[in-house]
Design goal:
By secondary structure, the chain is α+β, with helices and mostly antiparallel strands. It has three helices and five strands. The strands form two sheets. The chain has a three-stranded antiparallel sheet with strand order 3-4-5, with helices on one face. The N and C termini lie far apart (82 Å).
């Protein structure tokens, strides 16, 4: 069981981890040993998720989930399969925990009077600079 947060645990049978050759560190082994770990997990078909969790994950991880609803995470940071396997599972749990965390709604605020005055002052200064440049430019043409 892979524990994502205190409410969600995903059975290891739901995920599949494959290994391929890695472009990362490995020295002479880099072209011989398959150390890159690729984790695949079907968000759409997972029985561990409630419908609300599924919808939230599909929305927040939309760029990482393919058309079939499969989330794919890859790690090739380490030189060994076991270290990359550990890293990919850790990344998986962090990604899911972060995506499932409820977002605090943004509180609307107004700019302070001082910040507004600073903004307008810099706008006036920039406009003045541009006016001075155009006057100088016209005199050069005469």
């Amino acid at each position: 069981m892979i524990r994502v947060n205190r409410l969600l645990g995903i059975d290891e049978a739901e995920i599949s981890i494959g290994y391929t050759r890695s472009p990362g560190p490995g020295g002479q082994n880099v072209n011989k040993v398959a150390t890159k770990a690729a984790l695949r997990w079907s968000v759409r078909e997972s029985p561990a998720l409630t419908e609300g969790q599924r919808a939230r994950l599909l929305e927040r991880l939309a760029t990482r989930i393919n058309r079939d609803g499969v989330l794919r995470i890859v790690s090739s940071r380490h030189r060994s399969q076991t270290a990359n396997r550990r890293a990919v599972i850790e990344r998986f749990t962090e990604l899911l925990a972060d995506a499932l965390r409820p977002r605090t709604p943004r509180k609307k605020t107004r700019p302070t009077r001082a910040s507004n005055e600073r903004r307008l002052a810099t706008k006036r200064l920039q406009g003045q600079r541009k006016r001075e440049r155009s006057r100088r430019h016209r005199r050069d043409d005469d």
